[in-house]
Amino acid sequence: MQLTQQSRETLNQQIRNVLFETIQILFPLNVDPGSLIKPHNWRDRRYVGEKDGRVVTWRGYSANLVAVDFRYRAIFIDTVDNVLPQLERVQLFGEDFAQAISDLPHFIVMFVLDFPLETLQAIRDQGFTPRKMPKALHACIITSIDEFIASHPFYWSAQIARLVVVQRILSIHRKPLDTNEVPLQNLLYKSGYLHSYIVKGGLELHKLSRPRKAGDFGHDLQALVNNPNILPLQSFRLGIELYTGAIGYHLNTIPQL
Known about the structure:
By secondary structure, the chain is an alpha+beta fold. Helix 1 (5-26) crosses helix 8. The protein folds into two domains: 5-172, Yope Regulator, Chain: A (2-Layer Sandwich), CATH 3.30.1460; 181-247, no CATH class. It has ten helices and eleven strands. The strands form three sheets. The protein has a six-stranded antiparallel β-sheet with strand order 1-4-5-6-8-7. It is 37% helix and 25% strand.
């Protein structure tokens, strides 16, 4: 279906309503759902593909549940024009996802992130569609635009709420929590610890960039350094990545008191 301006606004309102009701199901008290719902456009060709030299766009809204409770992730609802060739769909999305959209010229996908690869069958068993990524899975609900608009928001919000609960069970305690990664980068930068660490390692530090903003591409931080033992007159850039891990990774190494 070719969306008019009016029908697109109807669709967008339905998406916002579904997210609103989902947030109210998950957090019935002391949360303003509207403050969490944000529009977005996905245009990364590695994620959404390319057609006739132009990157495909996934348009929709998301709600970042981490802002309410760090044990959760974001939820997404996107509108997608199904224009990629079948082979590319399989390569980008995996066979399950490609099969689910095979008869849909346009589709709605509701999904959450960060499922371990070994949960593929568990996602299927719960009635959701897995989308394969290089190092993780997305769990998705896929439908046509007409069906999405025709159904009451409660119908979709109940399914998404169950999807979020499944995500917590299968994923959240098995994957590093990165919600404190950016604050920790800023702490290391502002405290001078990272500067000291580089210098004590034997390098001459000329410049240290501020941490990148959340969502930006590139290294977490960059340093301009010299190695006095090898090419002392030549500066080079040093990319720095910071990784954090959940406490669950260390449960077997923390001494018992």
